Structure formats: C-alpha cells, structure tokens
Amino acid sequence: MGERGGPTQDVSQPAISNVRAEQPPIRSLRATGLLVTFILGGLTATPPLAMDMYLPALPEVTGSLHAPAATVQLTLTACLAGMAFGQLVVGPMSDRWGRRRPLLSGLALYVMATLLCALAPTVEFLVAFRLAQGLAGAAAIVIARAVVRDLYDGVAMARFFSTLMLISGVAPIVAPLIGGQILRVTDWRGVFVVLTVVGVLLACLVWRRLPETLAPQDRHSGGVGEALRAMRGLLADSRFAGYTLAGGFAFAALFAYIAASPFVIQEIYGASPQTFSLLFGLNSVGLVAVGQINGKVLVGRVSLDRVLAVGLSVVILAATALLLMSVGVFGEVGLVPVAAALFVLMSAMGVTLPNTQALALQRTKHAAGSASALLGTTSFLIGAVASPLVGVAGEDTAVPMAVVQLAAALVALGCFMGMCRPWNRRADGRAAGSAVAEGADS
User: N or C: which end of the chain has fewer CB within 10 A?
Assistant: First the structure.
C-alpha cells in the first residue's frame, strides 16, 4: 500500500511489508502477537457468540413468549441491524479518537444490553434489547478490523484475516454446542446470562492487554462531515464498492442459513437441539479449515480475485443443489444430503468472506475505521433483510432458505465481476487510488 492518496498495491503480490513497526504500540503488539491475535479473534467472535449460542433456543422462545417463528426470527434481524448501523457510528469515531475508547465503551454497553435480553418479558422487549445489543456490539467488529488494518498490509493482512477466521471460527463451533447444553439445565434466558459473562471477560482482556494502535497524527480531526467525505471517496472506488457488495451478499447467503437452519434441521427433519448443534459445529469446522487453506496455501500464490471467483461459484452450486432438493426434484431426501450441501456452502465461505474483506481494506489506508464500517454495515444490513425472508413460507419448507441463498450468491458474483473487473486489475487500481484520495481530501 502506498502513502495516503497514492496508488494502491495489489493484494495478490507477495512482496509487501508485513507490519508497519515504526510506532511503539505496534512494536509492543508484535512482541505479544499471539495474545493480540486471540483478543482480535475474540472481538470478531462477538456476532457468532451473540447469535449462534442462541440458535438452538429459537424454537423454545416461540413457545415461551407465545410468538410466531417469523417474529422470533426478528430477534436475529434486530441484532444484525443494530450491528450494521452501529458500525457506521463507531467506525468514524475510532478514526477520530483512536481505537481503545470507542471499543471499551461499546463493550460495556454490550454487556448491559445482553443482560437485559435475559430479563425480557415479551418478544417485543427482546427484539428491542437485541437491537441495543447489536448497536453496542458493533464496536467489537468494526474496531477489530480497523486494528488489523493499522498493523498489516497486503498479503500479510489477507493472511491475518484467515488467521482470525481460525480464532473467531471457534465461536460458531462451540457456541451452539454450549447453547444446546445450557438448554439441558435451564431455559433460553440462561444463554444470555452466559453471553453476559463472556462479554465482561472480553472487556477486561481488552482493558488490560490491547493498547492503542492508531497514532494521534493519523487520526481525523474533523467531525461527521469529514467522515462522510471519507466514505464518499471509498464508495467512489468501484472496486472497493464491488468487493463490499460481493461480501455483503455472500454474508446474506450465510445468514439465511443461520436464521433458517434451526427450523429446517429441527422442525422439518426432526433433529434434536444437540444434533443441530453438532451439525452447525461441523459446518463451522469446514469454514475454518478452508479459511486456513486460504491463508496458509493460497494467499501469495494464487490471485485472491481468482480464489474469490471460485468460492462464489461453489456457493452458487451448493445453493442450487439445496433448492433442487427442497422442491423435490430428487424425490424425498433425508437430512444427510441437505446437511452435505450446507457443509459445502459454509466451507466455501472460508475463502469468500476473508478475501472480500482483505481486497476491500487493501484499497484504503487513510480511513480504516470508516472503510471497516462500510464493509460491516453493508454485510449486516443485507443479512438483516435476508433473515425474515427465509421464514415467509412458514416452518414446513426449506425452499425460502435455498432461494435466498442462491439469489444472494448470484448477486454477489455479479457485483464482483461487474464492478471489480478482476481481469483488468492494474489499470483499475491506478484509477481507484485517485478516486479514494480525492474523496478523502475534498
């Protein structure tokens, strides 16, 4: 990556510096790299912890609060929408005031909102508290990505995102398993009590061990106007916008699975909460494993654009298979073929999601917080729209889930091919550097 406002460097080229070590906090972080990786992984694990641990309890919540399944799924939508809009606020704040203060404030509010979820008397209150939980939890997501951008460039950044997928990938593996076991001894409210405790521990770890990574001279002194100008410059870069939209719609396919799978696996195919948790964990293992292949084997050897194209194509194939099985083209199928298709779809996310983030953030250095906010907000808003769509036909069919997944994957591939123009990387990169710089400096 060049100096601010200069041309961007292609992420697929291996000759890029790993860490900008001129700042004392960054040197300190290098000395404790494993611990910092664990902390950043914990921060990026906030969304799967907040949503996945709760998934096995969704059918129980419908009975406990006397609410239909579509309304209970809005608790997922509310949390996701809160995380989307919260990132738009916290991202620019972290560019102005540094990373630590907004992060610690957000974690404190997240703990309070999570505790209120455990006390919610009605589904309406639960939806409202989940919205507050998402708004506060956005700080963890957006600032974790911004910290990575503070520390790394190019290939090293892409590899670090794959490493984060290994750390944060433990959360969706373990969370439903823990949620299923919690439901053996208590009800769904106990899940939120455990989430509250986890939030407190993470906040304490950040307070003690994560220093500031954004030097004062690199912070923005302006207010909302400057943040909006920076975002305008980012969106003027068609490749940044293309990677952002591709990642957002890929995330919608993932979230359609997250929102619908508890009902598809448990209600349609008759699996227990514990079986669902095991299948969900297995899918997460596939995602993590492919993410590690991406970071350890593919990055630096194969163009990330090419890997991303293959990943999106695999998602489309898996979603097509799910749709055909759901409408009965292959007759009446059991749980195993459906679970296999879901495994393939989830595994492909291991190359799709980290590479869209790395390719997008690679194109900005001057406003990592704002860029991270745009990435997260786009993904979470599109995912929030996908959530209620998977329940429009009730709990007795998996067709809506498969339709949403296939449509989202097709749009993601269209945005990537149409806006990023991977076959014309160099010429487009020179033009994009000027567009981003002009938006930031205007």
Answer: C
